[in-house]
Amino acid sequence: MVRSLYTAATGMKAQQLSIDTISNNISNVNTGGYKKQRAEFADLFYQTMEYAGTSTSATTISPTGIEVGLGVRPTSIQKIFTEGTLKETGNSLDIAITGEGFFQVLLPDGNTGYTRNGSFKMDANGTVTTSDGYPLQPQLTIPADTTQITIGADGTVSIMQAGQTAATQLGNIELADFINPAGLHALGDNNYINTAASGAPIVGTPGLNGLGQTRQRFLELSNVQLVEEMTDLITGQRAYEASSKAITTSDEMLSTVNGLKR
After folding, report:
1. In sequence order, which residues have a C-beta less than 8 Å from that of residue 166 and are 6 or more positions away?
2. Would 153 disulfide with which of 107, 131, 213, 238, CB 3.0-4.6 Å?
3. In this structure, are residues 141 and 125 in contact, taking their beta carbons and an 8 Å threshold?
């Protein structure tokens, strides 16, 4: 009876984690390039009271045994890197990735960060940066007299300058991909860094070797499906209530035992 109290408590904690994860997804439904997450769980080890195959007589054995489960535990929060919906913006420095890959940015600590949010800006020097001022890598600097910026599907950046009739190639946007993107460490601010689980970045030209293409004047929106998240939220809430009901039932049974002697 006491075992059921602790078992149900693990269920409540697991559902709380699930609801926390769903809440984060819902909060970021309008965050550009955000990738939804999913809490995953596994059952805890079992207390074996009788092993399957134990002899029950000289000629028979127990076909199933008796194993009592002790609850549930979280195993991971999986990042799901499916492509989000693309939105046309008309801004020449808005870039979406159609397919696999991440933009590379230089973080303040000198490390390289990776992001799917292609809402880029220019600083006072013309350097292309994220909204937080992190420079795009390889670095691009737009001259002050630029009148038009063109970014091709292969990441080629060309500009038209005042007084010129021909475009000038400024540089190239490179993308990075990983064998296991789910192993990336999320820093917040739409940025990730690689880990031993994600593997080293595989850098290349957009559109080649499995990398996605770049699309100028588009932004990738969050891949959160609000209807799915609300459905999962209801399911998690009901499971949490069911676990709490198991605790209430166990408490009532203990109260009955305590009241046997009066």
Report:
1. none
2. 213
3. yes
